[in-house]
Design a protein that fits this description.
By secondary structure, the protein is mainly alpha-helical. The protein folds into four domains: 172 residues, Serine Threonine Protein Phosphatase 5, Tetratricopeptide repeat, CATH 1.25.40; 103 residues, Serine Threonine Protein Phosphatase 5, Tetratricopeptide repeat, CATH 1.25.40; 71 residues, no CATH class; 37 residues, no CATH class. Helix 5 runs antiparallel to helix 6, helix 12 packs antiparallel against helix 13 and helix 18 runs antiparallel to helix 19. The protein is elongated, with a radius of gyration of 30 Å. The chain binds zinc ion. Zinc ion (ZN) binds next to loops.
């Protein structure tokens, strides 16, 4: 709903509130005279038309009685203010609701949830957390939404234990796939975040248990397998690292390229050069990709020579045109060319380098965020596991 529509709704609500107030007061003869409502209502309008929204909000709060009939109008005003970034005013509106006795328990909880959202938006996370924890305890109707916000707060604060605990309390059936496809996937990412912190601190034991936990949450977590391989490699356990990397193509073939260097290191340390070549060719056949072509070419250059590597790339270029593999082909030919041909190849390489530099390698399939670094949590839309390598002529 647009802001103008909400303002119209608000005005209608104020008018209803004014009439309802007048009607109820003729019956119950409370202290506030209907004239006060009318005065505040017209004052509010005048403030609005004179572009003095601060005064307008105070006048509206004063004009519109808080009860079951007018709650939606108050909430609409508060939410509109929050959306427009006027959070202090939104807080004022929602605090006003909570201070009034005319609402039932469910309506109080709804107002409390909105106030917590205001606090989140204004960065007052401690206050938001306190309100949300209370809702989790007391409000079956708003428990799931409160948990959803708590998970987001803990995620922003890197409090992974609390994030896992809050996510574990959520109802899988009511989970809205906003930040991850499933709750299991979400919890696995939280455990992986803990493991990454452990790896930086060289706390190998803790990293191991957090990765075991991640795979318990989600057996298909390619991120957990990649991190496990990194952990085992660091400990010199190459066979174990290799086993984790072998699981990645089944878990998510998009992430094969993230484990390619580790995979080569495992096979090399185990002295199985032939085994690696065979395995890479199988992978390339099942999951064609430019990183795999370049990796096989690199190995061929090492075990055979530049010409074998260049021939392999040229054969694949015919099947899958790619700027990055073309660039490698030019590089391989450069040392063997002379005179005018060499100059032309150098010129071609400079041009291709520029094109490659300008092209991002990763893209979020949810919001379209692009970059050259892999992010497990998309910086654009804050979704987990949606950033993937870009495919096509200029990408993977
Ligand atoms: Zn995104």
């Amino acid at each position: 709903m647009g802001d103008i529509a909400i303002f119209l709704l608000l005005l209608a609500g104020v008018a209803i509130g004014f009439l309802a107030g007048r009607f109820s007061r003729t019956r119950s003869s409370k202290q506030t005279h209907p004239k006060d409502y009318a005065l505040n209502y017209y004052k509010g309008l005048s403030y609005l038309f004179n572009e003095q929204p601060d005064g307008a909000i105070d006048a509206f709060i004063g004009a519109l009685e808080v009860n079951s009939d007018t709650l939606e109008t108050h909430l609409a005003l508060g939410n509109m203010l929050r959306r427009r970034g006027e959070v202090t005013k939104a807080i004022k509106v929602h605090q006003n609701l909570l201070a009034r006795p005319g609402l039932n328990v469910r309506q109080q909880h709804e107002s409390q949830l909105e106030l917590a959202r205001d606090y989140v938006k204004s960065g007052l996370l401690d206050r938001a957390e306190a309100l949300l924890l209370e809702l989790v305890k007391l409000s079956p109707s708003y428990k799931q939404q409160a948990l959803d916000h708590l998970v987001e707060i803990y995620q922003d604060e890197n409090e992974w234990d609390k994030a896992i605990a809050a996510a574990s309390t959520m109802d899988e059936k009511l989970f809205r796939p906003r930040s991850a496809a499933t709750l299991a996937e979400l919890k696995a990412h939280f455990a992986c975040e803990q493991a990454e912190e452990d790896l930086i601190l060289k706390s190998w034991g803790k990293a191991r248990s957090h990765l075991q936990e991640a795979l318990k949450f989600d057996r298909e977590s390619a991120r957990a397998s990649l991190l496990f391989a990194q952990l085992e490699l660091g400990q010199g356990r190459y066979r174990e690292a290799q086993a984790h990397l072998h699981r990645v193509p089944q878990q998510d073939p998009d992430y094969i390229l993230l484990g390619l260097d580790m995979l080569c290191e495992c096979y090399d340390k185990l002295g199985d050069v032939r085994g690696l070549h065979k395995y890479l060719l199988v992978l390339l056949n099942q999951h064609p990709g430019n990183s795999l072509v370049l990796k096989v070419a690199e190995r061929l250059r090492w075990t055979n020579d530049d010409y074998t590597a260049a021939d392999f790339i040229a054969a694949h270029l015919k099947e899958r045109p790619s700027i990055r593999t073309l660039n490698r082909l030019v590089e391989l030919h450069l040392p063997y060319s002379e005179g005018r041909a060499r100059e032309n190849l150098q010129l071609l390489k400079q041009l291709v380098d520029r094109v490659v530099e300008e092209k991002p390698s990763f893209c979020c399939n949810k919001c379209g965020f692009t970059g050259n670094t892999m992010h497990w949590l998309c910086p654009g839309c804050k979704a987990w596991g949606t950033v993937k390598p870009i495919r096509g002529v200029a990408g993977e």
